[in-house]
UniProtKB/TrEMBL annotation, chain A:
GO terms for biological process: transmembrane transport. The keyword Secreted does not apply. One of its GO terms (cellular component) is plasma membrane. It is found in: Cell membrane. Its main location: membrane. This is ABC transporter permease. InterPro entries: BPD_transp_1_N, MetI-like, MetI-like_sf. Keywords: Cell membrane, Membrane, Transmembrane, Transmembrane helix, Transport. Residues 94-311 form the ABC transmembrane type-1 domain. Belongs to the binding-protein-dependent transport system permease family. It comes from Phyllobacterium pellucidum.
UniProtKB/TrEMBL annotation, chain B:
It is a peripheral membrane protein. Residues 9-260, 309-554 form the ABC transporter domain. Gene3D superfamilies: P-loop containing nucleotide triphosphate hydrolases (3.40.50.300). This is ABC transporter ATP-binding protein. It comes from Phyllobacterium pellucidum.
Amino acid sequence: MIKIVSMRLFQAILVMVAVTAVAFIMFRFVGDPVAMMVREGASQAEKDALRAALGLDNPMLIQFVEFFGRVLHGDLGTSFRYQQPVAELLMNRLPATLELVLVATVMSLALGIPLGVVCALKPTGFLSRIIQSATLVGISMPTFVTGLLLILIFAVNLRWLPSSGRGELVNLGGWQTGFLTVSGLKSLILPSITLALFQLTLIMRLVRSEMIDVLSSDYIRFAFARGLPRSHIYGRLALRNALMPVVTVTGLQIGQLIAFAIVTETVFQWPGMGLLFTNAVGYPDVPVLAAYLLFVGFLFVMINMVVDILYTFIDPRLRTK
Amino acid sequence: MNTQTPPVLDIKNLRVEYPLTNGGTLVAVNDIDLTIRPGEIHALVGESGAGKTTVGNALMGLLQAPGRIAGGSISIAGKQINTRTGRTEGIVPGRDVGAIFQDPMTSLNPLFTVESQLCEGMLAHLKISRKEARARALDLLKAVGIPEPERRLGSYPHQLSGGQRQRVVIATALACDPRLIVADEPTTALDVSVQAQILKLIRDLADERRVGVLLVTHNMGVVAEIADRVTIMQNGSVVESGSARGVLTSPKAPYARTLIAAVPPIEHRLERLPVPSEETPATLKAREAVRGKTRSAAESKEDEPMLAVRELCVEYGQRSFLPSRRTAFKAVKSVSFDVKRGEIFGLVGESGCGKTTVANTIAGLVAPTSGSVHFQGVALEAGRTKSVRQSMQMVFQDPYSALNPRMRINAAIAEPILFYELASNAAEAREDAAILLEAVGLNGQSGERFAHAFSGGQRQRIAIARALGPQPSMLICDEPTSALDVSVQAQLLNLLKDLRDLAGLSMLFISHDLAVIRQMCDRVAVMKGGEIVELAETETLFSSPQHEYTRELLRLAPSLDRILKAENTAA
């Protein structure tokens, strides 16, 4: 077990070094920082001085090592646009996105797994046809359409829920949470539904097809032959086998949502990382882009690692080699 | 025997139907009568599609919808199954009927421990505490003879061997003390030595616990070994029923006679297995055409062996950055043998002995770690010439996965013919394909169809026709008949012999079935743990086996003749 974890950790570090290198190269090739920073009409001597001051006259490798060292210390540079440390910018935005994604994921799992099971047990039944068609609509509608529709119904017409922003926030040691106030929770509902809809369909369909496979397996037939209660066979014996791929997909989807919830965040004016990133692309704010790249890389590496470790918990066959 | 006690199973006029989409019905089981007394093992025998598994499913309540019990009655331990609902009042599957499935590798849930799978049935049916269930589970594991039962309770299925898993399955079947056990092909997936142990275990449990056993099987040797009574089924109906010895020694119904005659005997060699010949004039004509082609293709020095394998070693290793972490599993350890021209050379052994690895190495599918393979006097290297690949063709075990389901049969057979430029155009290759189909006993016109339109035996014929297409001089057959019914197996073995004589083929014939080896091979090598432990002429090997392991295998192989003879001398 420890061996598997340490092995995965080692691989994760390798990937992170590679991602850092890409972020570094981005700095080098997306425009010359000196040209952006000096005043217009500066002399060559002034430029050289600035170059030396920034350490840009050193050999490539040394520059990379220095960059890597700064990243390790959490120094991601200063945003061209906001003139603030990038790390600080990210930390301001991160809680918004994480809370949104967390709620959306819990929602899609809590609904998607039972719906998938229902559809698998009676694949041709009336109920499962309804569920399947309804979720098909959900998956084929673009996120911004769903978001706008929800705003139109619940915010504009019914006036039940806010249409934008995060509501009142509570500061927990630098983490701005919306979980502790009524308006914060209310503001979460519409964007998280919008975000969860696609994932819900995906998980529902995955659970359904996996469950149908598992139900035709010998060990489930054997469970029926032993006269075990249906609830036990479906809910425990079959479902656990069917959930294996769901773990992988959910992991990847969480990463996907955190990194690219841009559309939903734009529709709901959600002050998350997505908005920061879209603005940075337009500007071009290279330190923010590079930091974003690092962050997304880190996120996926971590998620993959957690998924692999979860796998060894679920499947005993992976534990003993 | 126990004529006073009520039978544990009494089936009268059972009829099971499957409604078809076109409005008709398929009668899977037609008017079956069957009685099992406590402690009796009743074998239900027949070929695939005979309806024997359907009978077992019907009484376990496992009939797949839309199948239904259309008539007759089933009573278990004196209680009647409601045939309309397919359920029983007072009879619960698991509690009153135990089940043993065919493949122990798949009938246990991989994510749960042995203890959990043993106890869940008891907890559901017996109203006992978890602690009592655990104690019972421990007793059961002891009863089925699993070493270190305490530790095994905490194990997961993948940590057990196939034989141990089947013992766990048997223990779960016994968990609630059922009166009847339905064992559906309980040893088909196991090696001979393990099979012998499991059969003995089932026999002992039936005797000690007075459980009735319905043993569904296609293996006559197994029937002879442990069954008290036997019922032979064909197309859903009973053909013959009676005491196992009576039916096996002097079958009365014609089908029963053919079925028993098709079982390859292990005691002596037959020229041909006595099954109806399928040689129509068209077949003979096609074979003449095939003969003309192959003879011209195979011409070289007679004295030299077709295939010479020398000190072949194959290791499967785990690669690692650190040399100390590299581990190697030696699948084949220094194997040497020759296959002479026109000879059928057998490789026999239990699963994991390396026989398939040897075949794959010779065919070039696996790279050897060391050693050499000479084919027609030429050393084979990693990159093989087209002519070598052409002269060596392979027939695989599973005819269901060996054919591309999206390819028409004649295209599948014509493909290698075109690849090796043995026909000038596609039309000509298809003509050749039709001739090959005729030669293996199929209609030449049937090539327009896809693989799913054919039965397992027909598919294996197609696979053989495809292998013959490139006009090979050597055929590697890896368990070519082990997925097939006995009568189909008999026909295919006859076919392979005919083709050998016809085309002067040499064959490497791999099997775990000693009886098949005896019928087919001129010489045999017995493999164990990656090594050849004995190599001899087939008749010598079977009449006076030298190595301990060979004797062991021969002793354990279930055999019709031997058991019947032993009983006759005892009587």
